[in-house]
Amino acid sequence: MFRLLALGLVALSFILILADRGIAAGVGRLDHAPETWEELTLPGKKANETRFSDAMIEIQSDRSVSFRYATLNGQQQDARSIAWDWRVDQQGPITEQTRKGGDDRSLALHLWFRDQDNASLFGSIGSLFGYPRVGHLITYVWGAKEAAGTILPNPHYDKGVVIVLKGPDAEPGQWQREKRSIDQDFLASFGIPLPDSGLHHIALSADTDDTGSRSRGSFRSIRLGAEGQATR
Questions:
Q1: Which of 136, 130, 93 is nearest to 115 (CA)?
Q2: What CATH number corresponds to the domain at position 138?
Q3: Is residue 37 part of a domain?
Q4: Distance (Å, whole) CA 231 – CA 207
Q5: How many domains would you assign to the chain?
Q6: Which domain holds residue 80?
Q7: Helix, strand, coil shares of the chain as percentages rounded to 5?
Q8: Cα–Cα distance between 147 and 139 in angstroms, integer?
Q9: How is residue 153 annotated by DSSP?
Q10: Reported pTM
């Protein structure tokens, strides 16, 4: 009896450890290692400076724009929710996110989906630069003139939207936690269910090239979940 009880406690402890790591739900936490986050630069544009540590990923933007993106594995592609912490320490100008050529932002987290067709954010030229193929995309923004909760068309791509999470009243210098349902945001943005092809990349960026300004902000604890609630 004692032996069975001991084995049961060991099994329960193992399950709890897996759940804490997001493994039980087929999800997980993305680490801060630089090899996880490939750099994507744009032709003719100065790139941001990104610093990696165990604690966070810091992006400094100085009249520049670029992305760091992580390619998700099979289990992660099935994620249905996402959570993360972010903080802006030096805020750039607050801009209108639908204004092409003027839509800078202090921080952004992007969800890049792969569609069944060959449409891609970067067009046919993207393959020449080794860019990933991106179908629909959702961009969560810190540093918009529009109010938090606003869903806007992406001015650069007709299969993309911008969701404002931090508007003009956002307080810099403090960590803020976000939790989003990928299913619900996709349906609200595009009017169709999330495709079976799923989520393929998560990208981080800052953008100050249009306004010729500077910003500095950080991300940490980016977590994916499977059942509408991202793991803590």
A1: 136
A2: 2.60.120
A3: yes
A4: 29
A5: 1
A6: 28-225
A7: 15, 40, 45
A8: 15
A9: E
A10: 0.84
